Amino acid sequence: MEDTTMMEGSQPLFQDKLFAIVPTTLLQDRIHQLAEDIAAGGGTVVPFDDSTGRIEKLNNIDFIISATTDFPDYYRALDLMKDVVKPTWVDACIQTGKSKNPRAFSPDPALFMSDVIVCCGDIPEGDQEAIAGGVLAMGGQFSALLTKMVTHLIALDMDEDKCQMAVRKHLPLKIVLPHWFDDCLKVGRRINERPYLLPDPEITRIEKAGPIPPTKTSPDIRDATNPEPKEDPYPTTPPAHLEQARKLKAFEGKKVKLGEDLPINSRLKGTITDLIKTSGGDVTTNINEASIYVCSFRDGDDYIKASQARKDVGSLGWLYYLITHDTWTNPMRRMLHYPRPREGVPGFSNYKISISSYTGEARVYLENLIKATGAEFTKTFKQDNTHLIAAHKNSEKCDAAQEWNVKVLNHLWLEDSYAKCKQHAETDPRYTYFPLRTNMGEILGSTEIDRDAVERRFFPKSRKPKAVTAVAQSVGVPGSSSALGRAHSDNVGRGSPLVEKTSRRTKTVEDVATPVTARHIDGKENRTPGSRGAKDRATAKLHESAGDIAQFEKEMKRKGGVVYGGRRHKEEEAADKSKKKARDSTSSKRSIDEVEADDASTEDEAMDEPAKKNKKARKQKLTPIKYRILVSKDERWTGNPDRESKDKARLREIGLFVMDDYKKADLLCAPKVVRTKKFVAAIASGPTLISSAFIDYALRHNKIPAPEKFPIEGKKDFEKSFDINVDEGIARAKQNKHRLLKDWVIFCTQGVSGGFDTYNEIIQANGGRCQMWKGRTTTLNATKRKIDTQPQEVSQNLQEDEGDILYLISDPKKSEFPLWKSFRELAVKHDMKARIVKTEWVLFVAMAQYVHWDAEWELNEEVVNAMNE
């Protein structure tokens, strides 16, 4: 949480503190202003050595001011427990007259909410607390009040009071839906706010399939797209307004060794040598003399010696970057600035990877990154590809991938696997998630090479870690993301920017039992000899960050992120453990979702509200879930998310859990029997059908009525219209247990009425698999079905299954004729019979819960032509 330490009396804010200002990317005027502000606050600025680019007497420095982590002493500063903060930290301290939490101003790219100050509008209290915990854990700040410092106001509607105030006072902030924050957490990056901006957010008004705006080249991949550039390096002249800020000479006083594996001829080698010498450096053939080693691959004696000695080791692309920009950058900051593994990433040699919706430098970067992993890159996407890396899923390639069963992942899977030189799980939701209306190319290249993973694999060297360093790094040193990686790893993948960056940690937050005293900037706390350094800094950071990280870790475990509900009181979590065991024994196989729903539905007190109630007055533990309800075609909450949230919370308090998972529904609620996607898919669970009056009664009387007293309406009319006995269908569903269409592969055309996704979910709910059919040759793994392999209770509902029929769901339209022809050819090829059917066939099977065939459902060219005559 934010440090609110007050300065006593007239004591200067930065008294007796030593500062270093890293000038890279800062204008000279800004540097002078910072120096003056620090001096006015009683601090001292230690001169920065432009000739070497290093910080003098780093051990004595208290704060390092830098806009980025791209300076040579960054990781050494972390090892020494130094606070690395952005220039805005100085401004914020002076404005408030207090020392601000350095972690909230860290330039570490892993803390992707740095520079973000969030305030919440009229959204549920539990959601506010979840958002606050996540923002703080990701390096941002949370404000209960709307102030001029707020950068993001999270709200559901512009009619809210805080939104109206922001508009009236012309506050320079962005008003976004809570879905923006949730999606940021899901991908582990700060994504563009554009699709979530109120009053007219794209995600609510533009169809998913609509074109997604192209993105500009990500700044993280500029001049970093090729590990072995073909053109000669050429230094650029900085703009006039940056002239004074570009004093750092990349090769000043340094010796460079060029590796033997570099693809350069004698002419180019001479050009590079001249440029290095012109910049004040030299070229050597002795690795022991060199301070920089440039090579192509992570092997060889020179690579190992240079790496173990902590010299700068980079690729030819990195060397070109230094020459072009005449400024130092960490070679591990960008993927292709660091030498490649000669054998690639283990397992990737078996892959054929293509990309979708990336253009220009982004496409070149991904092409070279794929090759660096050892996989085969294909410009053309074909059915023998194993993976498709996409910026979004609205493309023909993504449609074809679904048809061909090719894995579609975002680029974070590729980057994280390369960063650790270890393949990450393709099923991790972080890699399969594509935020609506967002182009993932906007965050391309934001992953760094994992220093520890590279060291363990390519140049291991035994060394004993320091316990103090281990503790501090595990709780969130500025610029390090160890603790965040631990808190977030189960949700965003171990290769995320929130991954532990150092192996020197040995303890987690829970392991530290020593009482911790917060470090005050006035320097008046009692100290033992030698305590001024690492020990105090480590314990202070543990004190500052442990609560935020623990809260965020808990919130991220809940399904759906932080948009849908709050958290429990800590007192409630500790209480009634014996009741939990009893509840679990009486509840039938409670799912993970239900346990998480208990957390999600309990509201806590407001963060900034003083305690007004004693423990006896607080809400007791939630009632165990008695019924899980899926609601379909009930319009009570349409366009009113606030009422929906409150009603669902009330229902949960009495034991009714309203959810959208049709596979776990006990009760299926609707005004009448309908054929919506939700309703038909949920039938496979064998739920009790109830009318909407059931919910009305529960909300009005605050108790659960008997479901049988609220039977669903319209059963007789439905049975008459569709020749389906609803009660018998429910009984069969209980026998089938989602296995009616097990081992079935059913094809469906893209333009079918109702949409492919509707029939895909219905078929999946019954255990089958649905594939989109576009008439292309596809890899078909469906075979003739054997009824005798099904359990007896299911087999009796499959008596009419002919086993060798291949189904295609389509519409009676002439435009579908070409698809039918190629589908018949496909069926013949696999010794099966093609049957092209109306949507009525699958709806009947799913509602009646047995396989049945009627000739009136069949489609062919003659039938369609006759309809149009």
Automatic annotation (TrEMBL):
Compositional bias per record (Basic and acidic residues), positions renumbered to this chain: 219-233, 501-510, 519-558, 569-593
One of the record's GO cellular component terms: Cul8-RING ubiquitin ligase complex
Pfam families: PTCB-BRCT, RTT107_BRCT_5
Protein name, as recorded: BRCT domain-containing protein
One GO BP: DNA double-strand break attachment to nuclear envelope
Sequence segments annotated as region (Disordered): 205-240, 471-620
Biased composition (Acidic residues): 594-608
Cited SMART domains: BRCT (SM00292)
CDD domains for this protein: BRCT_BRC1_like_rpt2 (cd18436), BRCT_BRC1_like_rpt3 (cd18437), BRCT_BRC1_like_rpt4 (cd18438)
Domain BRCT: 9-107, 107-198, 348-420
